[in-house]
Amino acid sequence: MLRTVRSDDAYANLVLPAVAEHFRLAARDAAFTTELASGTLRRRGTYDAVLAACLDRPLTKLQPAVHDCLRLGVHQLLSMRVPTHAAISTTVDLVRAVANPGAAGLANAVLRRVAGQDLDAWVAQVAPDRTTDPQKYAEVAFSHPAWIADELRKAVGGEEWFDLLAADNVPPRVTLVARPGLATREELPGTPTPLSPYGVTLEGGSPADVPAVAERRAGVQDEGSQLVAVALARAAVEPAAGATGGEHWVDLCAGPGGKAALLAALAAEQGADLVAVERQPHRAGLVRRALTRSDGTTFPGVTGVVTADGARPPLAPASVDRVLVDAPCTGLGALRRRPEARWRRRQEDLVELVLLQRQLLGAALDAVRPGGVVLYATCSPVLAETADVVRATLAGRADVALEDVRPLLPEVADADGSVEGTVQLWPHRHGTDAMFLALLRRTG
Prior knowledge:
The protein is of the alpha/beta class. The protein has helices at residues 2-8, 12-22, 27-42, 44-54, 64-79, 84-98, 101-114, 119-126, 134-141, 146-156, 160-167, 211-214, 223-234, 258-269, 281-290, 341-344, 349-367, 387-396, 427-430, and strands at 175-178, 191-192, 199-201, 218-220, 248-251, 273-278, 302-307, 320-326, 368-378, 400-403, 423-424, 436-442.
């Protein structure tokens, strides 16, 4: 998995289930493998600093495969309950298999040095002073690239910044969602989620073994993502003058389909219909699958899935009632579940993403009728992608007003966004991904 992520730009959360299925891993082994691979990716920055202190050569001189193996060994030694002798011997065997006897000897010597201290002692040794160089400290102690750490500091502020960075390194709980009208929360195993009325936290086992999930009447979805669909469905929309029939809803950036599935179920409950728009054909295929039950029937209320550019959607102006813009973003609010994102994203990505986010929000506002609403959401707390996009949109249009989304989510406390009336969820406060929500109404 590490090699695939490194060489093929694969996504860990997509590769791991395929690996578990291919090797027919039992639930316990699959969980161990997930923690070993994902944890190694999350703490890569810390582990590389430790390895650098134990090596007599630069890290860049290591073969990439040997480097991967050493990171796996360090994670077992410093962050898992694997016995020291087992962590070292299995890692040395792995290095011998991918490299040569000389590299195996190096791995043995390095890992024995690593095993001499616990993680806290190593961080105290290799990290710079927290007060004089907080960004570099965050890079080493919390394994966040300096630019990402700085963006998160600006978003959350104060000493709470370190709490957020620490939360990014805690494996997320598996949360299921019951799609109303298709499944009930009571039929799902687990503890009811405190914020979403449709979720449960799975205490153990595989989601695939849950009948409602296997039948696609329920799914795996972070509680914060569930709240995005809930907020849009709860927003007040006055009936359009002369309109007949139910409302028309659009998910403008629907891939891979999790939010669209919940939104479709909520739309059907309200007598509305949903169109899902997704630009990339393969992701549009994922959306179609997400909106189809295992018996081949489409979810009630789904009009269709359209493969099209959300920035130029095939929608008549002022023709729909509600639009969700779950915009492509850096994904820095989901570093717990996408551990490779912190190493893949670059600061220069922000410019292109922000431009796209503004285009998508503008297109959504053009498509919604006067009196209709657009929910703008990102899985990122970065101010350039959240507050700045909302402010720029409001400044550039006289026909749009920002509405307070907070009353729509009374279950959520301590979640004020950086723009009055918006919501910002946090891993360390709410146990969710760092979702941002803003509700905009087309006024005329």
